[in-house]
């Protein structure tokens, strides 16, 4: 009844939990709370400077100041990035997972190949595609020239952001694929055999058997895609550095914090605003997906 003993020994599990709890408070909860507090101040990144409470001035400056149009454009671009990445990444990952779940010859090698971009890291992936999309001698440009088409890729004001979306999907699709594949492999084969006896087609089996049983995997992938897409700034930094209409909210937070002015209140407010946007979409997505799981 008392696996850790009696008396003071019963406190052992709580003491063991105290260490990760302290780490969580110091490195996650604490900075998060301080960010919210800083967003209502005029704090400067200069030691010894006076900090004053300014209320909602930072938020007003973000959304209604002279350069607020750039902020609204970044917000719109972030939402576009999130929707496109979430839909395409999960759609492609589900298709690949279904194909690999057919126990093809060499399927383990294919899994490793599709998951490899996740392991490579952002710097390597960005370098690879910067070379691939080289507007002068890149392989993609040479392929385009066969069809009489030319592009500047990451240097294009109209196409650069779409190429960043492609790189994002290419890099993280393997991660979503593994989650879908784990869900697919948990589906009992007996259900497919019973459906085959009843004369169901492959599409009917997928719609009525596969998809309802992998709904939790779909929910997890949707949430990870939404959060990951809204937090992406490293690919943008490594490919375009925010130029050519590719700035997002996450990139603006980075730029205002590390490469902008010494004002810490403004990037803190932008971080809080980004968190609220992510929170709204995550709550809505969880509610809708959980409702679907119950219906199934």
Automatic annotation (TrEMBL):
InterPro entries: ABC_transporter_permease (IPR051393), MetI-like (IPR000515), MetI-like_sf (IPR035906). It is found in: Cell membrane. It is a multi-pass membrane protein. Keywords: Cell membrane, Membrane, Transmembrane, Transmembrane helix, Transport. Coiled coil: none annotated. SUPFAM superfamilies: MetI-like (SSF161098). Residues 75-285 form the ABC transmembrane type-1 domain. Signal peptide: none annotated. The keyword Transmembrane helix applies. The chain crosses the membrane at residues 12-40, 79-100, 112-132, 160-184, 205-227, 264-286. PROSITE patterns: ABC_TM1. GO terms for cellular component: plasma membrane. Belongs to the binding-protein-dependent transport system permease family. This is Sugar ABC transporter permease. It comes from Paenibacillus solani. The lineage of its organism: Bacteria, Bacillati, Bacillota, Bacilli, Bacillales.
């Amino acid at each position: 009844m008392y696996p850790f003993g009696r008396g003071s020994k019963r406190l052992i599990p709580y003491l063991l939990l105290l260490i990760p709890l302290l780490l969580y408070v110091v490195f996650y909860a604490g900075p998060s709370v301080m960010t919210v507090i800083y967003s209502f101040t005029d704090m400067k990144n200069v030691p010894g400077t006076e900090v004053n409470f300014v209320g909602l001035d930072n938020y007003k400056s973000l959304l209604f100041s002279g350069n607020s149009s750039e902020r609204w454009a970044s917000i719109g671009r972030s939402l576009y990035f999130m929707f496109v990445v979430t839909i395409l990444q999960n759609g492609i990952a589900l298709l690949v997972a279904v194909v690999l779940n057919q126990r093809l010859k060499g399927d383990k090698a294919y899994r490793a190949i599709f998951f490899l971009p996740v392991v490579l890291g952002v710097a390597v992936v960005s370098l690879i595609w910067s070379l691939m999309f080289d507007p002068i001698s890149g392989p993609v440009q040479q392929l385009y020239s066969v069809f009489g088409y030319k592009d500047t890729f990451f240097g294009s004001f109209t196409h650069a952001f779409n190429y960043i979306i492609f790189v994002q999907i290419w890099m993280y699709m393997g991660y979503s694929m593994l989650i879908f594949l784990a869900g697919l492999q948990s589906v009992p084969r007996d259900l497919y055999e019973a459906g085959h006896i009843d004369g169901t087609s492959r599409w009917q089996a997928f719609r009525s058997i596969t998809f309802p049983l992998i709904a939790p995997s779909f929910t997890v992938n949707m949430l990870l895609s939404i959060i990951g897409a809204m937090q992406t700034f490293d690919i943008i930094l490594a490919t375009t550095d925010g130029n050519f209409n590719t700035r997002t909210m996450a990139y603006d937070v980075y730029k205002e914090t590390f490469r902008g002015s010494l004002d810490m209140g403004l990037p803190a407010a932008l971080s809080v605003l980004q968190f609220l946007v992510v929170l709204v979409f995550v709550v809505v997505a969880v509610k809708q997906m959980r409702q679907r799981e119950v219906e199934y």
